[in-house]
From TrEMBL:
<dbReference type="InterPro" id="IPR011527">
    <property type="entry name" value="ABC1_TM_dom"/>
</dbReference>
<feature type="domain" description="ABC transmembrane type-1">
    <location>
        <begin position="131"/>
        <end position="410"/>
    </location>
</feature>
<dbReference type="InterPro" id="IPR036640">
    <property type="entry name" value="ABC1_TM_sf"/>
</dbReference>
<feature type="transmembrane region" description="Helical">
    <location>
        <begin position="265"/>
        <end position="287"/>
    </location>
</feature>
<dbReference type="InterPro" id="IPR050173">
    <property type="entry name" value="ABC_transporter_C-like"/>
</dbReference>
<keyword id="KW-0547">Nucleotide-binding</keyword>
<keyword id="KW-0813">Transport</keyword>
<dbReference type="GO" id="GO:0005524">
    <property type="term" value="F:ATP binding"/>
</dbReference>
<feature type="transmembrane region" description="Helical">
    <location>
        <begin position="238"/>
        <end position="259"/>
    </location>
</feature>
<dbReference type="GO" id="GO:0016020">
    <property type="term" value="C:membrane"/>
</dbReference>
<keyword id="KW-0067">ATP-binding</keyword>
<protein>
    <recommendedName>
        <fullName>ABC transmembrane type-1 domain-containing protein</fullName>
    </recommendedName>
</protein>
<dbReference type="GO" id="GO:0140359">
    <property type="term" value="F:ABC-type transporter activity"/>
</dbReference>
<feature type="transmembrane region" description="Helical">
    <location>
        <begin position="346"/>
        <end position="373"/>
    </location>
</feature>
<feature type="transmembrane region" description="Helical">
    <location>
        <begin position="164"/>
        <end position="182"/>
    </location>
</feature>
<feature type="transmembrane region" description="Helical">
    <location>
        <begin position="130"/>
        <end position="152"/>
    </location>
</feature>
<keyword id="KW-0472">Membrane</keyword>
Length: 441
């Protein structure tokens, strides 16, 4: 069943098509391992193939383990495949596929075939690391808020006061530096954790898909276009959803902090500016629904286009013999035009959300200060700068919200393409998810 397409896709994705097995050790390595079990504490200091597995917290957080590779690239002005490390043992598709398969069978045992949810299985697969990433993101949001809201405000009031205390001024500067350091390091930790988690889930899901597809006896309902889209496009959507999706969790926290602080600091007039930020989130939810809708339509059209192209390539001699090139070319152009129209509409929605996010701070600040002055309240430079700084700290959550919403929407569509569907083969009935990917034997 399409062995060439599957082999080529497997080589491109770097996935193993063999049944998932834990890596076996040679006899010499077995003897060393058995000897090391006599001293369990030595296992803590074993060296791994990839330097990221030996990196400590600060090395992993600051990506210091990449320094040798960056230095080699700087000295040589180029890198070859021999300079790049091998794949980490924790990112190998075989090990992660075993874990995903175990979680899937556990889900089937607990809830049955009808109640089993693939989304729940994916969440259980990466929930611990996702919670660590969300915690790092919350630290980033808190550090980015405390710096301008408290420390910068104190520094502005200190610069305007007549009493001068060098120690207090230095303490404020050091505090701002530590907050920025904490913000940058926690954000880097979030990205480092998310990228590894996304790579593990993507490798596990695609390898599991390859293995289950190869078990099918009948492929009458499956086309090469569907296989290619599932094993390439949908896998990438899962990767993006895991790596970017958790950024959506920082928005509500920053919104609550900004709303509470500006109301306490500036008075009820700050509610107007905070309300503008709050109204922006339902707009993002609407954009998410539109993005998911366009994505579902585009996937169906893409499958039809790829299927048509495979039919043309399979019958190219027959088409050339009867001079049907123009007719088939028009069919391909028609399907491609429909796909392009859907992509353009999705791009318009995405560009609007991305373009509106940066100007929300300006609109909120202008509306807040205008209302504050119109009601007769005084507005000092320290107050104005502090409010603008707080609004700017809330901007990061707004800027990443469209990207997170888009990745989660497309990831949800990708997961929905793995939903339960029955396919009858010539020899046995196989209950599977979509095109035989997650099979209940």
């Amino acid at each position: 069943m399409f062995p060439d397409a599957l082999d080529a896709a497997g080589r491109v994705e770097g996935l193993s098509l063999s049944s998932p097995q834990l890596p076996h050790l040679d006899e010499e390595e077995d003897s060393e391992t058995s000897g090391s079990h006599k001293f369990p504490h030595l296992l803590l200091y074993s060296r791994h193939q990839h330097p990221v597995d030996n990196a400590g917290l600060f090395s992993f957080m600051t990506l210091q383990w990449l320094s040798p590779l960056a230095l080699r690239a700087y000295k040589q002005s180029s890198l070859s495949l021999d300079d790049v490390w091998g794949l980490s043992c924790h990112e190998e598709s075989g090990v992660n596929t075993q874990r995903l398969e175990f979680l899937w069978h556990s889900e089937l045992k607990m809830r049955g075939r009808e109640g089993a949810s693939l989304k729940r299985v994916f969440w259980r697969f990466c929930q611990t690391r996702m919670l660590v990433a969300i915690f790092s993101l919350l630290l980033t949001m808190v550090a980015g808020f405390v710096g301008p809201a408290l420390l910068v405000r104190e520094l502005l009031e200190y610069s305007q006061s007549s009493q001068i205390s060098v120690q207090f001024g230095l303490a404020l500067v050091v505090g701002i530096f530590l907050m920025e350091l904490m913000r940058s390091w926690s954000l880097a930790l979030m990205w480092a954790v998310n990228y590894r988690t996304a790579a593990r889930l993507r490798g596990a899901a695609l390898t599991f898909a390859f293995q289950k597809i190869l078990r099918l006896r009948n492929t009458k309902d499956i086309t090469p276009g569907e296989l290619i889209n599932i094993c390439s496009s949908d896998g990438q959507r899962l990767y993006e959803a895991v790596s970017v999706g958790c950024l959506l969790a920082g928005g509500p926290l920053v919104g609550i902090l900004g709303l509470s602080y500006t109301t306490y600091f500036l008075g009820p007039t700050a509610l107007l500016g905070s309300a503008i930020f709050i109204v922006f989130y339902p707009t993002m939810m609407l954009a998410s629904r539109l993005t998911a809708y366009f994505r579902r339509k585009c996937v169906a059209v893409t499958d039809r286009r790829v299927r048509l192209m495979n039919e043309i390539l399979g019958c190219v001699k027959f088409i050339k013999m009867y001079c049907w090139e123009d007719a088939f070319s028009q069919n391909v152009h028609k399907v491609r035009s429909e796909e392009r129209s859907i992509l353009e509409r999705a791009g318009v929605v995405q560009s609007l959300t991305v373009g509106v996010a940066p100007i929300v701070v300006v609109i909120a600040s202008v509306c807040t200060f205008t209302l504050h002055m119109a009601l007769g309240y005084d507005l000092t430079a320290a107050e104005a700068f502090t409010v603008v700084a707080v609004f700017n700290s809330m901007t990061f959550a707004l800027k990443v919200t469209p990207l997170a919403v888009r990745s989660l929407s497309e990831g949800a569509v990708a997961v929905s393409r793995f939903q339960v569907r029955k396919i009858e083969t010539s020899t046995e009935n196989i209950r599977c998810l979509y095109v035989g990917i997650f099979v209940v034997d």
